[in-house]
């Protein structure tokens, strides 16, 4: 465990929640929801979730490359999920 204000388990929990959100959002499950409120909330959460992904990737690069520390298993798994989601978003964005 690294000495910091955000624990590695918090990052892993945020990544799991974010991965579930993107799985639901990009699998078009929300197209069957007929409530405008749910769709609006889904759209408003997309940008913060993308920023969360980028923040975790930058944090992991900071820990490994700048501080030269060995990351924990939770941070490594969270970072792998973040990179996977970033790649998925990039591919889907480029496909149009």
In one word, what is the shape? elongated
**How large a portion of the residues is in β-strands, by DSSP E?**
under 5%
Which series of helices and strands comes N to C? HHH
Content-based structural category: mainly alpha
- Average pLDDT works out at 84
Distance between the termini: 41 Å
Total count of helical runs of at least 4 residues: 3
Radius of gyration, in angstroms, nearest whole number = 15 Å
Total number of strands? 0
What characterizes the major β-sheet?
none
Helix content: over 70%
What ranges have pLDDT less than 50 throughout 5 or more consecutive residues? none
Keywords: Membrane, Transmembrane, Transmembrane helix
Transmembrane segments: 12-33, 45-66, 73-94
